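Meet the record:
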Amino acid sequence: MNLIKDNWNNSDGSLFQTYLKSLARPEKVEWTRKILNTKMPLLAIMSPEIKKISKEISKGNFMSFLDLWLWEYYENTAILGTLISKIKDFEVYRKYIVKYAELVDNWASCDVLTFNVNTKNETKFFNLAKNLIKSEKPFVRRTGIDIFFKFIEKDNFLNEIFDILNDFEAEKEYYVNMCIAWLVAECFVKRREKTLQFLKTSKLNSFAINRAIQKCRDSFRVSKEDKEMLLSFKRN
């Protein structure tokens, strides 16, 4: 199928869905579902193929493809997330990512997103993240936390991130807590001293703190001495 188009219409969208189904691997569907834990229909298309499809669509008028909001299969979400990440205008990007985040139901659809943060838009991105984490939907919150990874090495934002994380003391959702754990572990690797100060007074729940410590202990970027020291922050 020709994926490079000047304009995508509904008929093209129907043909595209048929094309996607032709790439399905039925024998891998249940295995893939266990990994993604999604309720969406799955085609189990290989990731390199999804990336290839997204790249081809992006060579044309991919915005008209996005506007079809094809959302039948998990694979649609992976393609849309990849394409949304290519939008350069922040205000346009925000409109699409907010709608996208409201629809997703799994960690991979969140984590496929990338965030083109720069000095001109960093405040807008940070405020977007703060708005997303207020959502009642766990994968909207996870998307907001994903954005915070882009701010770990920015001094004027890191302290606020730690303050915000303390607000997740009562968080119950597994995939939100796991993302927080990844964030704290990455903070420790890149901002060791500030993260240690955070850990000393953190209000995060035991699950998130313990998983963050475990991720640090599993990392080749953390010294043997620090891995032992971090055990003192574990909670029962």
The chain has 14 helices and no strands.
